[in-house]
Write a sequence for this structure.
């Protein structure tokens, strides 16, 4: 297993683009990891049970044993990246997608490091929608109709923002309230080459821009939220996550309309964890700026 370690300066693999024909298929999985020592092993075992060619755990800001647990998994398919500093919410997706794209992946799964539910079959469905149905983004419906009646007021507020965005970009009839912000999802190589990688760090924006590129977006599977296996969040964290997603949906709508981006929804600005996103580290990574830590 090859490990790539990142500091404030970067030590990075130089990866050559693969050449491949129309029948070539390569599945990569990107796994954001922040203090997931109790859950990440099972998540990676689930991904290893799939026909995945590359699994990229993006360890960032972890102060627990997540890194050492991942490094103990002796599989050549696992390529952990480790940042000392937290990258912020969703930035690890863009980092991992960059590696997957450079390695030649034709499909990329995004699965959070704490999702240790029995979801292997669902992940297979997502990939099948890309390779078998020609989809460019296959989403998970985490709130099927029968579950929406029991939502908390906070969850309903988030779902409302997601629904309004999907309706505005012409997708409400086909994907309902599904969003790349919630649950595993898969994207095609075509999407990664059509939408700027940095936009993956604001998932609803990547959704809106994919629509503008006339890419095919569908719901690929259904996993009720509780079946994801993610731990319950404390009220403060839940509130900040909600504010982040609502703000992301607002920003996505402005981006879709080619307007100056704002994070205002119903006259309220929603930031949540958005200010903690480390765009500087993502930019340095994507531009290949690095220095050898030993130099």
């Amino acid at each position: 297993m090859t490990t790539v370690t990142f500091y404030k300066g970067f030590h990075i693999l130089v990866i050559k683009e693969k050449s491949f024909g129309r029948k070539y298929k390569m599945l990569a999985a990107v796994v954001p990891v922040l203090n997931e020592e109790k859950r990440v092993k099972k998540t990676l075992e689930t991904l290893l049970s799939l026909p995945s060619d590359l699994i990229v755990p993006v360890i960032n800001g972890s102060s627990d044993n997540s890194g050492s647990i991942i490094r103990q998994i002796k599989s050549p398919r696992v390529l952990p990246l480790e940042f000392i500093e937290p990258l912020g919410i969703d930035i690890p997706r863009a980092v991992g997608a960059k590696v997957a794209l450079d390695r030649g992946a034709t499909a990329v799964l995004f699965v959070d490091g704490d999702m240790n539910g029995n979801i292997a079959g669902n992940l297979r469905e997502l990939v099948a929608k890309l390779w078998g149905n020609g989809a460019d983004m296959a989403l998970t419906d985490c709130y099927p109709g029968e579950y929406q009646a029991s939502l908390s007021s906070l969850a309903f507020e988030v779902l409302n923002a997601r629904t309004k965005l999907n309706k505005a970009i012409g997708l409400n009839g086909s994907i309902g309230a599904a969003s790349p912000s919630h649950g595993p999802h898969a994207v095609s190589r075509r999407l990664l080459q059509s939408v700027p990688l940095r936009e993956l760090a604001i998932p609803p924006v990547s959704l809106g821009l994919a629509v503008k590129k006339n890419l095919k977006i569908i719901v690929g599977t259904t996993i009720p939220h509780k079946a994801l296996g993610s731990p319950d969040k404390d009220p403060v964290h839940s509130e900040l996550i909600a504010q982040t997603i609502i703000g992301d949906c607002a920003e996505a709508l402005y981006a879709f309309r080619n307007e100056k981006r704002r994070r205002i929804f119903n006259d309220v600005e929603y930031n949540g964890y958005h200010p903690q996103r480390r765009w500087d580290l993502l930019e340095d990574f994507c531009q290949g700026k690095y220095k050898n830590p030993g130099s």
